[in-house]
Amino acid sequence: MTRLAICPGSFDPVTYGHLDIIQRGAKVFDQVTVAVFNNQSKAPLFDVNERVSLLEEVTKHLDNVSIDSCDDLLMEYAEEKNAQAIIRGLRAVSDFEYEMQITSMNRKLNAKIETFFMMTNNQYSFLSSSIVKEVAKYRANISDLVPPPVEEALKEKYRG
Ligand code: ADP
């Protein structure tokens, strides 16, 4: 049986923190699908197609990782894909409370699919897409926060 994990998120845009979680997840599961969620309430900087393209580019060296987008409820999507697990990253205690709520709700919706949490790599514990966007706006150096194609895409967004 192929063990599939879904790595859900906004990825607006993908950072080295995300990539670290994806890569580590891909070592444990046979297949990892990164699912880009279209959360309109977050007013994303990059549209879903742009976020998917950037993820495809920065994960192309990972044979067992694929990228998808999703408008449905996560647990319905995961069931449809026959996934065994959801992978989420944890940075700080502040992530914990929110993740506990979501995970309890997800378990209520579908108890067959487990959620696994991976602790951030220490060097990325303060890294988020929001911080990256904030810094990129002021044209500061973000080369150690995001992969080169993402750096380029951000420069393009904030040009002019
Ligand atoms: P969401 O809007 O669902 O929180 P994000 O794109 O912000 O989506 O994050 C997707 C996943 O990646 C989440 O599980 C989040 O905790 C994790 N993540 C984001 N940044 C980091 C980081 N620097 N280190 C570890 N995990 C991270």
UniProtKB/TrEMBL annotation:
InterPro entries (UniProt xref): Cyt_trans-like, PPAT, Rossmann-like_a/b/a_fold
Lineage: Bacteria, Bacillati, Bacillota, Bacilli, Bacillales
Alphabetical list of PANTHER family matching this protein: PHOSPHOPANTETHEINE ADENYLYLTRANSFERASE
Pathway: Cofactor biosynthesis; coenzyme A biosynthesis; CoA from (R)-pantothenate: step 4/5
Cofactor(s) required, per the database record: Mg(2+)
Catalytic activity from the UniProt record: (R)-4'-phosphopantetheine + ATP + H(+) = 3'-dephospho-CoA + diphosphate
Protein's gene: coaD
Site feature: Transition state stabilizer: 18
Subcellular location(s) per record: Cytoplasm
Keywords: ATP-binding, Coenzyme A biosynthesis, Cytoplasm, Magnesium, Nucleotide-binding, Nucleotidyltransferase, Transferase
GO molecular function, one term: pantetheine-phosphate adenylyltransferase activity
Span of domain Cytidyltransferase-like: 6-134
Source species: Halobacillus seohaensis
Binding site for ATP: 10-11, 18, 89-91, 99, 124-130
Primary role: Reversibly transfers an adenylyl group from ATP to 4'-phosphopantetheine, yielding dephospho-CoA (dPCoA) and pyrophosphate.
Quaternary structure, from the entry: Homohexamer.
Enzyme Commission identifier(s): 2.7.7.3
Protein name, entry field: Phosphopantetheine adenylyltransferase
Pfam family, one: CTP_transf_like
